[in-house]
Amino acid sequence: MSQKFQELIESERPVLIDFFATWCQPCKVQSSVLTTVKEKIGEGARIVKIDIDQYPAIASQYGVRGVPTLAVFKRGELLYKESGVHDVNRLTQLLEQYI
User: Fold this and answer.
1) Which sequence positions are flagged as catalytic?
2) Which residues contact residue 40 at a Cβ distance below 8 angstroms, ignoring those fewer than 6 apart?
3) If you ran DSSP here, which 8-state letter would residue 44 be given?
4) Runs of H (alpha helix) within 1-99
């Protein structure tokens, strides 16, 4: 997964990574928000979910201490990272500034 993850974040298109856990209630809320964000931004950015229990090395590499944590990458550069549930408008605006 590490090599694949590296290729993913090297994209010219912004990539929003949702670090989540299946047991996390706020993560379920964030997931439905991300569905709406995807509808709004279309192909402008990718949204990828990473389960921290399945890929603890990646979560650790990027300092994920709580879930949900959202991170935005473009061309391999970490442009944004913050924990907590984000709303649709905030995420849409965030991604649009990197598209």
Assistant:
1) 24, 27
2) 88, 92
3) G
4) 2-9, 25-41, 56-61, 88-96
